[in-house]
Amino acid sequence: MAAVDLGAGSGRVMLAEIAADGVSLTEVHRFPNDPVRLLDTLHWDVLRLYAETVRGLRAALARRPDLASVGIDSWAVDYGLLDTTGALLGNPVHYRDGRTEGVPERVVAALGADRLYTTTGLQLLPFNTLFQLVAATGTPILDRAERLLLIPDLLSYWLTGVAGTEVTNASTTQLLDVRTRRWSTELISAAGLPERLFGPLRQPGEPAGDLRAEVREAVGATGPLPVTAVGSHDTASAVVAVPAEGDRFAYISCGTWSLVGVELPEPVLSAESREANFTNEAGVDGTVRYLRNVMGLWLLQESLRVWRSRGYDVELPALLAAAAREPGLAAVVDPDDPVFLPPGDMPARLARACAERGEPVPDGPAAITRCILDSLALAHRSAVRQAGRLADRSVDVVHIVGGGARNELLCQLTADACGLPVVAGPVEATALGNALVQARALGVLDGGLAELRGLLRRTLPGSGSLRTYQPTPGVEIAWRDAAERAGRRDG
Ligand code: ADP
Ligand code: LRH
Predict the structure, then answer these.
(1) Which residues make Cβ contacts (< 8 Å) with residue 292, sequence separation at least 6?
(2) What is the β-pairing status of strands 10-19 and 2-6?
(3) What positions does the domain Carbohydrate kinase FGGY N-terminal occupy (predicted)?
(4) Domains in the chain with CATH codes
(5) pLDDT by residue (tens digit) across 366-423?
(6) Consecutive H or E run containing 217
(7) Closest C-alpha to 244, from 453, 402, 469, 461
(8) Which of 20, 126, 130, 140 has the most crowded Cβ, counting Cβ within 10 A?
(9) What is the pLDDT of residues 112-155, one digit of tens each?
(10) Residue 234 known to be catalytic
(11) From the CA of 235, how far away is ligand 2's center (Å)?
């Protein structure tokens, strides 16, 4: 299987070799995913993402000419619009673009926060597709659009010529009914959006078409090669590959964002849950991903970009080692403050946030990095505790998957902040979850998520890709005090 996984920071094509008794994963291609600002709008470089996907598939086929299937996942909410001929209208806009400013407030005032939540189960994030589309209302592109395809569906369409809409990612639009998992035509029309944009839904594991002849040639495939729908929302695929046993676990899918929550059989749609801004996204096999978006390692990524643009020689491993030597919990901010959402001078924003809160202002990359990681660990603590409480679920262990699992300091701080063991890894959970769903669809594996996770647990420890962090004894009071200082009153 080839798993194409497009994160907001980087994309990769992984070759997964899966059998009933083992899984191995090899990175065959990785590339940066750099946004492009054109005039006043921040865009994704979507043609580059397509070209790199093709290059990666070529590399996968060079190793395994018998490649059986391709699956694609990416970050959520963003989309391309097609005209009646299937041509892309405009270039997909980046969710960190400012065009939705003021739109959520308007939509909530018109439709009602309670109605939006009980219909869709989604947290209010300014970039939800609903708000992006309302912001685009009246533009020539939206007027001419026939079909909306979220990013993985758009790439899949370019590879196969078949347009489809995968349900886990569709759930992030805030236009899907959380109970029926169908488009909410009522909400679509109440928001003044054209119903024609929203096509039939497909489920993870369903076929998504075969590569077109010229694509086959470009990637070097000698025979038909199917694309299989996977949990095309990257977080849905990541949660599939959380190597947990039973249901008393929380997960943190930790990369550009920290997606912190629990897996549930049913959504939680209470007023308290809405006020806590918890989301109920559709998971693989009908599960609910009950979670909150924490701003995540974006804060560090963007700080690194700014430092490097100023000529500082900063490398991540050395910076993290220096941050580990800094005094802990010296200065904390709320990482979810919307001021941190757009690209920009993150070190200056962090310094300003500390000054405004009466915290000491961190000076220099090591102290700023420590401030970011302490603040993220506090936000992890708050979201894990709130998820457990709002969903009435006991949590004994926190799993960290994604690139953040390589950050030993963040994993230890999260264990300390939560007062729970943290199991870190796999780093490439998203690609693994993507590939496992393909393998099951092809009949190589069977069973539900518990069986897929069992296979991972049997396979991963031997490869050294799981590491457990125990909370440091005696630090509870320091974290409780810091949580109070940060204004997080969730115990
Ligand atoms: P996304 O899929 O959102 O692009 P990833 O899951 O690839 O994100 O995670 C990227 C993050 O992983 C980076 O922002 C970085 O902070 C962290 N990371 C990557 N490599 C390392 C490393 N060697 N040590 C510590 N952290 C790392
Ligand atoms: C993580 C992610 C997250 C979304 C965000 C837009 O990559 O998909 O789940 O909220 O990107």
Answers:
(1) 123, 259, 260, 261, 276, 277, 278, 279, 383, 386, 387
(2) antiparallel
(3) 3-240
(4) 2-234 (3.30.420.40), 244-425+460-491 (3.30.420.40)
(5) 999 999 999 999 999 999 999 999 999 999 999 999 999 999 999 999 999 999 999 9
(6) helix 213-219
(7) 453
(8) 130
(9) 999 999 999 999 999 999 999 999 999 999 999 999 999 999 99
(10) yes
(11) 7
